[in-house]
Specification:
Blueprint lengths: L11 H7 L3 H6 L34 H4 L3 E7 L8 H16 L2 E2 L5 E2 L3 E5 L3 H9 L3 E8 L4 E7 L6 H11 L4 E3 L3 E3 L2 E9 L13 E7 L12 E4 L13 H12 L2 E8 L9 E3 H14 L3 E4 L7 H12 L3 E5 L19 E6 L15 E6 L3 E4 L5 E5 L5 H13 L4 H10 L20
Parallel strand pairs: 1-19, 10-12, 10-14, 11-12, 14-15, 15-16, 16-17
Antiparallel strand pairs: 1-9, 2-3, 4-6, 4-7, 5-6, 8-13, 18-19
Helix pairs in contact: 1-11, 7-10, 8-9, 10-11
Length: about 450
């Protein structure tokens, strides 16, 4: 299968205009997805630390240690005992076990026996129902004046054949598999005392920002920020299931976000949550309705026509999508939505400005920000250190949201971001650091 080419124009003007070019995004859905490649296992090396790790001392009583404890957590798989690919396979296995996930033609997990359609004409729906399909659910997207329909495939019909049949019946609709997306999260190292004071949050600067992530739980780091949660989101079974979202929200708050619109779309095990495109579409529509000028997205998965459609509609409305570039390693294939045209894909660097060892590389990388050993809120209380591209993205999302709140257009704000980037790696744009580092 021919590999999908992800084209990102390095020039400032072309990249900025891409944010508003919805037609280019929608056209991208006809391209063929790249063949997944197995990423080579990176050589193990200790994460950067500010000082050598001291020998462990007996822990103080829990009530004394809770607020001063620091744990280092790695985003999207980097456990000490496994590779990125192993963890990625973990959440996929969970989806298969818990929901009986099927696979598309190139092996990506999808909801079994289902086709999902955006703007399916009534006449086409009637034709398909007569052919044995039936409607599982119908969701009105009020902010867009559209609806999304999930169709059950007739018994005995192969899913790939059903996709082709539905597309033939509704050639002007957006049709695809209901793909699954993951968010790996693994502990790294033992809990240890944090002897430094917690990071001081910036005073709220009046700008709103949206985020699609896990749930967010109350935390002192969010005390000065208004948190608006999506009522249609998943409820976390335990604080551990809100670890990633709470950390990301605290990073947005620390950079001045006054209001955070939070959409929790993840379900499954706390350490290996997953979601599906139907939940993602609904969450994006809700955020578009809230008016947040920037949406921070911490998901990674395959290309999908409905995801491309929603990103295109967001860009057409002047919204900026910021996404984590992925943590599959230098040889990993592109992840989505980060690799879609118009999305600002953020990679992570350590304090020495070296790229995170598990970060994806590619032409779609936009900019780099601090994402290794980042101090952020822990959902169980206190603070922890996190590593991964998910923890670099909030820095960029907050910066762009501040610019938009100040009256800048999406292209102007992205253009200003690129102008301030510090070149790293090869001179000019490169596939490791993108346009460079944002302080």
């Amino acid at each position: 299968m021919a590999r999908r080419r992800i084209i990102m124009v390095a020039g400032l003007a072309a990249w900025a205009m891409a944010c508003l070019d919805a037609s280019a995004v929608i056209a991208a859905q006809e391209r063929e997805a790249p063949e997944p490649r197995e990423a080579p296992e990176p050589r193990e090396a200790p994460e950067p630390r500010e000082a050598p790790e001291p020998r462990e001392a007996p822990e103080p009583p829990e009530h004394e240690a809770r607020e001063s404890r620091e744990t280092e957590v790695s985003d999207a798989s980097g456990s000490e005992n496994g590779t990125e690919a192993a963890s990625d396979a973990g959440w996929q296995s969970d989806a298969i076990r818990d929901e009986g996930a099927d696979r598309d033609e190139i092996g990506n997990p999808v909801r079994p026996g289902e086709v999902i359609a955006f703007s399916l004409p009534a006449a086409a729906e009637h034709t398909l129902v007569a052919a044995g399909y039936h409607v599982i659910s119908r969701k009105s997207l009020a902010a867009l004046g559209e609806e999304v329909v999930r169709l059950a495939v007739p018994r005995g019909r192969k899913l790939a054949s059903a996709i082709a049949e539905v597309r033939a019946a509704a050639p002007d609709a957006v049709i695809d598999y209901d793909h699954y997306y993951g968010l790996g999260l693994a502990g790294r190292g033992k809990a240890k005392r944090e002897r430094k004071a917690a990071p001081a949050a910036s005073a709220p600067q009046g700008f709103p920002v949206g985020m699609i992530d896990t749930a967010v739980v109350p935390h002192p780091a969010l005390a000065g920020t208004r948190l608006v949660a999506w009522s249609g989101g998943e409820a976390p079974p335990a604080p551990a299931a809100a670890q990633h979202g709470t950390a990301v929200a605290s990073l947005l708050a620390a950079r001045g976000a006054a209001t955070i619109y939070s959409a929790n779309i993840f379900r499954g095990p706390a350490g290996r949550p997953f979601t599906s495109i139907d939940s993602l579409v609904e969450a994006m529509e809700w955020l578009l309705g809230q008016g947040a000028p920037v949406i921070n997205m911490s998901i990674a998965g395959p290309p999908n026509a409905l995801l491309q459609k929603m990103v295109g509609l967001a860009s057409a409305k002047g919204r900026i999508i910021v996404a984590a570039a992925g943590n599959g390693g230098p040889a990993a294939p592109p992840v989505y939505p980060a690799a879609l045209p118009g999305v600002v894909a953020v990679t992570a660097v350590d304090p020495a400005l070296k790229v995170y060892r598990y970060a994806n590389h590619g032409r779609y990388i936009g900019v780099a920000a601090q994402g290794v050993g980042v101090l952020a809120a822990a959902s169980g209380g206190g603070f922890a250190r996190y590593s991964g591209t998910s923890f670099a993205a909030p820095h960029i999302a907050a910066r762009l949201a501040r610019c938009r709140a100040g009256g800048g257009s999406s292209p102007d704000c992205i253009g200003a971001l690129v102008k301030t980037a510090r070149d790293l790696g090869m001179p000019g744009f490169d596939e490791t650091y993108g346009h460079g580092y944002i302080d």
